[in-house]
Amino acid sequence: MNLPNEGLAWAAIEARLISLKGNDIDWRSGRAAVYTYFRDDDLLDVSRRAYQLYFQENMLGKRVFPSLEQMERDVVDMAGDIFRAPDAAAGVFTSGGTESIFLAVLAARQRAYARGFRTDVKPQIVACETLHGAFNKAGYFLGVDVLRTPMGADFKASAGAIESAISDRTIMIAASAPSYTHGVFDPIQSLGEIAKQRDLWFHVDACVGGFLAPFMPAAGYQVPAFDLSVPGVVSLSADIHKYGMAAKGASVVMFRSAEERAYTTFEFSEWPRGTYATSTFGGTRPAGSLASAWAVLHFLGRKGYVENVRTIMQTRDRLVAGIKQIKGVSVVAPGESCMLLYKSDDERVDIDAVAEQLGKRGWYVGRAERPKAIHLALNTVHQAIVENYLGDLREVVEQVTSLKLVGVADDRTY
Ligand SMILES: *Cc1c(COP(=O)(O)O)cnc(C)c1O
User: Fewer beta carbons under 10 A from the terminal one: N or C of the chain?
Assistant: First the structure.
């Protein structure tokens, strides 16, 4: 496509933008359980209006826009309250989980260097294999390896395996609370003790569950201690654009103190224009996602998040009960949060075929590899689809089983 010579009118542009969406999944319908986090139109409206109010501002220029400095302080403060940080101000608002993790890895590496870590040795993070791939991405940029230990039968990190893997190259241990892969909590308390004993940086990745887990007890679901109140935890990442329910481009990384946070700052002072200093990966940054985060946190409040958790967990409970009634598939246990995985437990039921058939019925099907399963990241919107989904799943499993019985399952012609 070439740049049009004559600009188009908005009406034509809008029509094209809308028609471009034609083949996208309808996230509003609950037919996907990944990528979008949608509660209802009231919340979406608040998020969008806040974003639009700050559409044009630039987070790089906080001196020019004290509003942004204030909102960032407020959002970080609220995160400090939610995650029981000893210093509620020691955080950074970022564009997403990847950037929050990037900053934590950077800070851990810089602290190691400041303490005399040898520059001829490649630093290393030790974590369970379920840790999010963003750590490897950060490591790729920052010259840090990630050593992954096997998950246990419960899909959690083994504190013993992590401890054994620690070497003099290790600068950080990291864990998930909960994991995106299986929705379970790594043993944060035991890992915190190990980190403390060895004076290592310990990062808790609460990107996906950071705005669910703190509210689970109030909704009647127990979670292990995982936040900055656990001794040994040095930093924690949590995405406001996931279950925080704000516009995309919103996450926080919290540090135990301002001292650790300071390692995120990059400063270059030999520029003819003067000193250039930032604490994030980006330079020019949108302010809309910050305004959305600020607004959504205020709009939902503690009670709103508790309500979200209750809806999501009840939806999960209903789906689990329904799947248990379907012969041939079973729920992958344990499930400690919003993730729901189910697999085949009958050789006549090919889970790939189930996924394919669900796809044909208009469901976007997320997949897991170990175990081979169908993976759903449930949200409030899914309360409306439970019966529909279970009905389709029941029919699909029957269809796949009967085809297998007459011996035509492997050519995938159904
Ligand atoms: C989503 C996620 C990330 C990465 O966050 P992005 O916002 O996609 O950059 C990291 N860790 C976990 C556990 C996640 O779920």
Answer: N
The length of the chain is: 414
Banded pLDDT at 410 (limits 50, 70, 90): low
| Strand 251-255 versus strand 91-94 pairing type | antiparallel
63 CA distance to ligand 1 middle (Å)? 30
Residues 37 and 338 sit within 8 Å (Cβ to Cβ): no
From the alpha carbon of 178, which atom of ligand 1 is closest?
Answer: 13
Indicate which atom in ligand 1 lies nearest the CA of residue 251.
7
Nearest to 145 by CA among 122, 112, 168: 122
- Asked if 82 contacts 301 with a C-beta cutoff of 8 angstroms, the reply is no
pTM above 0.70, yes or no: yes
Ligand 1 pocket test, candidate residues 242, 251, 252, 280, most atoms within 8 A of CB: 242
What average pLDDT does the chain have? 95
Q: Are 130 and 105 in contact (CB under 8 A)?
A: no
179, 243, 187: which is closest to 215 by C-alpha? 243
* Ligand 1, CB within 6 Å, residue ranges: 96-98, 101, 132, 134, 176, 180, 205, 207-208, 239, 251
Question: Per DSSP, what are the bridge partners of residue 124?
Answer: 145, 170
Q: Which of 221, 322, 234, 291 is nearest to 59 (CA)?
A: 291
Ligand 1 atom at minimum distance from 239 CA: 7
pLDDT in tens, 203-221: 999 999 999 999 999 999 9
